[in-house]
Design goal:
Number of domains: 1
Strand content: under 5%
Order of helices and strands: HHHHHHHHHHHH
Shape: globular
Helix content: 55-70%
CATH topology: Farnesyl Diphosphate Synthase
CATH superfamily: Farnesyl Diphosphate Synthase
Protein name: Phytoene synthase
Structural class: mainly alpha
CATH architecture: Orthogonal Bundle
Radius of gyration: 18 Å
Length: 257
Amino acid sequence: MALPDRITPIDDYVGKWRAREPEMEIGELFVPASLRPRFRAWGALLFELREAAFELSDARVIAAKSGWWVEELVALAQGRARHPVTHALLGPGDPPWTMLARGLAECAQDDSRPADRDAALAGMMPLARGIVAMEAALFDGVHDADAERAVAVHLLLHRLLVGLTAGDAGRVPLSLLARHGVTAAELAGERGLPVRRDWARELAGSLPARLPRAGLYRRLSLAFDRQRLARLARRGRLDAGAGPATAWHAWRAARRG
């Protein structure tokens, strides 16, 4: 009988991330073994930051939790870490943790309803820029506008996954609701399906075709986001991909680096 893998302090956090993005566990098969601990820690951290900024139901809790993470990211720039996930990401070099902290703080304070797609993407850009800057440092990628746009779409997709009944209606633009004559209260139900499908098409159309200069983490995320958005646009389903198709997308993303 095979022995279980050694349990590490970040396993619970990695498990939360994989529950939301099970595709990335398949993608990890294509990551060099030496990079897998950093890959897992970064995925777990991004899950925590998304949750702190966008996914909690009480504005006071969002302010408290995002504020804690801003402090943690600033401390990382000084070589200190309190959280198991951030401790796993400490290392040589000078990653732009403070840029990520500023982006998180700005996005956590913005609960506005975007008027259209461009406004929705712009609202995600402070955090997207910080994420791309960090990934360039952690995974030897290049910080460019295409990668920023891919991350902004990623953030909007994951807000849609959990935020349809929230006060910001999952950041779905007001223009789409008006086009279909649907209220925010109807967005999560059957009447909101055409809105959700159109929003998936708009987000998919905003993705760059490729990110050849990005690190493998972002290339995999781009491939899986495109897969999810296509499924939502065609079938109205928000679930993650699985099976041979997901492995094929991961293989293509890995070999395009």
